[in-house]
C-alpha cells in the first residue's frame, strides 16, 4: 500500500500504520529469519527408494539422470507422444501416512534445518498484530456489504451515509427499509415499501400499534438496523438519515417457551426485560416487540407502563410494538405510529406507517371481519 495515493482518511491511517509496522524493529527481523529458513528448506535434496511395500528415505547422491540418455537413444523410434503416467503431487497441507513417514525420514537426515523450523513458530507465536487482524476481518465485511447493497440498488433502493449525532437525540430518516424483508422480496421480485420517521425533542419512544401483518415488527427491525449499521460506519438503507450514536442496542422479541429454565412465558419475559433495564443507559436504544402478550390485558397494561416509564425516565431512544394502544399517549416523549389499512377494505394493509393517534379501530375492524362480525357482514345475514 506504500505506493498508492489514497484520499480516504481511514485508508491513509491504515497505510501509515502498515508502513510503520513493516519498518518496526521486530518485523524485519522476523521476515529475515523466515526468508532464511525458507531458503534452507528449499535447498534440501533427498532420495526415496520404493521396493514393493517398502519406502526408504536416503541422502541425495549425485547419481546421473538416465532419463535424458534413454530418450535420446530411442528418439528415432518415436511415432507419437507417449502417455504421461506421472501423478501430480498434491499441494494440500495435510498428508497421508506414507507422506508423514517420508517427512519424518527427511527430518532425520537434516536435523538442524528441521530444528530451526520447529523453533521458529514457537519463538514468534505472537507476531500477528491485533490491529492488522481486526482490519483484515472488518474490511472483508465491508467489501461483502458493498456487494450486498448492489443487489438492492439494482432494484431502485437507496443507501446513504447517515448524519451522526452524539448529543442531540432528534432523528430523521427518509425511504428507509428493512434489509431482511427486502432480501426476501427482491428474491421474489415483489415491491418493497419504504418508510420514513422523525423524532423532535422531547420525543424519544415510538409506540407502534395497529393490525397484525401491517409492518409493525418490520419498523422495529428497520430502526435497529439503521443504528447498528451507522455505528459500524456503514451506509444505511434509505435516501436520508440523521441518527443518534448509541452505546448499545437491546432487543426484546417474543421467544418460544423452553423447558430448560422451568419458567413460564410471562416469567421469562419479566426476567429478560429486567436484565435490559439493569443495563440500559441514557445512550442506549431499546426495541420492544409485543411485551406481555401472554397475560391478561389489565396486567399487560400495568407491566408495560412500568417498563416504559423506567425507559423514558432514563431518556432512552427506542421502539415499542404493542397491542395496547393506550401506551402511545402515556407521555409527551412517546410518539404514536400506526400501521394503516385500506379505508374501504380493512383486510388490506398499506404497510407505510403513519404518525397519528392510536384508536385501535383498524385492528378491531380487521378482527371483526375475520370472524364475520362486522356491521356490513352482520347486516347482510340479518333479515331486514
Outline the secondary-structure elements.
Elements: H1 9-22, H2 26-42, E1 46-51, E2 54-59, H3 66-74, H4 97-109, H5 111-123, H6 130-153, E3 159-160, E4 163-165, E5 171-176, H7 179-187, E6 195-199, E7 205-209, H8 216-231, E8 236-237, E9 240-244, E10 249-252, H9 265-279, E11 285-289, H10 297-313, E12 317-321, E13 334-341, E14 349-355, H11 361-370, H12 375-381
Helix pairs in contact: 2-5
Write a structural description.
Among the domains are: 128-156; 158-381, P-loop containing nucleotide triphosphate hydrolases (Rossmann fold), CATH 3.40.50.300. It is 43% helix and 18% strand. It contains 12 helices and 14 strands. The strands form 4 sheets. It has a 6-stranded mixed sheet, with helices on both faces. Strand 11 (285-289), helix 10 and strand 12 form a beta-alpha-beta unit.
Quick recap:
The chain has 12 helices and 14 strands. With 384 residues, the protein is of the alpha/beta class. Among the domains are: 128-156; 158-381, Rossmann fold (3-Layer(aba) Sandwich), CATH 3.40.50.
Strand content bin: 15-25%
Please report the distance between the alpha carbons of the first and last residues: 85 Å
Order of helices and strands: HHEEHHHHEEEHEEHEEEHEHEEEHH
Q: What percent of residues adopt helix (DSSP H or I)?
A: 40-55%
Helix-strand category: alpha/beta
What spatial form do the alpha-carbon principal axes imply?
A: elongated
Let me know the largest β-sheet. 6 strands, mixed
Radius of gyration: 34 Å
Name the poorly predicted regions.
none
If strands are numbered along the chain, what order do they take across the biggest sheet?
A: 10-11-12-7-13-14
CATH class of the domain at 158-381: Alpha Beta
* CATH homologous superfamily (4th level) name of the domain at 158-381: P-loop containing nucleotide triphosphate hydrolases
> Based on DSSP secondary structure assignment, what is the total number of beta strands?
14
What does the average pLDDT come to? 88
- Briefly note the CATH topology name of the domain at 158-381: Rossmann fold
The second-level CATH architecture of the domain at 158-381 is 3-Layer(aba) Sandwich
Amino acid at each position: 500500500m506504500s505506493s498508492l495515493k489514497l484520499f480516504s482518511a481511514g485508508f491513509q491511517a491504515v497505510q501509515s500504520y502498515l508502513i510503520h509496522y513493516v519498518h518496526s524493529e521486530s518485523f524485519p527481523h522476523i521476515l529475515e529469519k523466515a526468508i532464511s529458513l525458507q531458503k534452507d528448506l528449499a535447498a534440501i535434496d533427498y532420495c526415496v527408494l520404493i521396493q514393493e511395500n517398502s519406502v526408504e528415505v536416503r541422502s541425495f547422491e549425485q547419481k546421473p539422470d538416465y532419463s535424458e540418455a534413454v530418450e535420446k537413444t530411442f528418439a528415432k523410434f518415436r511415432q507419437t507422444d507417449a502417455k504421461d503416467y506421472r501423478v501430480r503431487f498434491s499441494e494440500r497441507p495435510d498428508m497421508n501416512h506414507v507422506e508423514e513417514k517420508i517427512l519424518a525420514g527427511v527430518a532425520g537426515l537434516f536435523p538442524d534445518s528441521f530444528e530451526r523450523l520447529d523453533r521458529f513458530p514457537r519463538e514468534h507465536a505472537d507476531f500477528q498484530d491485533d490491529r492488522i487482524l481486526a482490519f483484515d476481518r472488518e474490511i472483508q465485511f465491508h467489501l461483502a456489504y458493498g456487494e450486498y447493497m448492489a443487489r438492492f440498488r439494482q432494484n431502485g433502493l437507496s443507501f446513504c451515509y447517515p448524519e451522526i449525532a452524539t448529543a442531540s437525540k432528534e432523528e430523521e430518516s427518509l425511504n428507509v427499509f428493512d434489509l431482511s424483508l427486502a432480501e426476501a422480496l427482491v428474491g421474489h421480485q415483489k415491491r418493497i415499501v419504504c418508510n420514513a420517521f422523525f423524532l423532535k425533542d422531547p420525543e424519544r419512544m415510538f409506540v407502534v400499534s395497529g393490525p397484525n401483518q401491517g409492518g409493525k415488527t418490520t419498523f422495529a427491525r428497520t430502526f435497529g438496523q439503521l443504528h447498528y449499521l451507522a455505528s459500524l460506519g456503514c451506509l444505511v438503507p434509505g435516501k436520508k438519515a440523521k441518527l443518534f450514536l448509541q452505546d448499545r442496542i437491546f432487543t426484546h422479541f417474543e421467544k418460544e417457551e423452553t423447558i430448560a429454565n422451568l419458567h413460564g412465558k410471562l416469567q421469562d419475559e419479566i426476567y429478560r426485560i429486567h436484565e435490559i433495564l439493569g443495563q440500559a443507559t441514557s445512550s442506549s436504544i431499546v426495541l420492544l416487540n409485543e411485551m406481555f402478550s401472554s397475560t391478561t390485558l389489565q396486567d399487560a397494561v400495568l407491566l408495560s407502563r412500568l417498563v416504559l416509564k423506567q425507559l423514558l425516565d432514563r431518556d432512552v431512544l427506542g421502539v415499542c410494538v404493542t397491542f395496547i394502544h393506550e401506551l402511545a399517549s402515556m407521555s409527551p416523549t412517546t410518539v404514536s405510529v400506526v400501521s394503516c389499512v385500506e379505508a374501504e377494505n380493512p383486510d388490506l394493509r398499506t404497510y407505510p406507517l403513519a404518525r397519528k393517534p392510536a384508536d385501535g379501530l383498524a385492528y378491531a375492524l380487521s378482527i371483526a371481519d375475520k370472524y364475520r362480525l362486522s356491521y356490513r357482514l352482520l347486516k347482510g345475514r340479518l333479515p331486514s
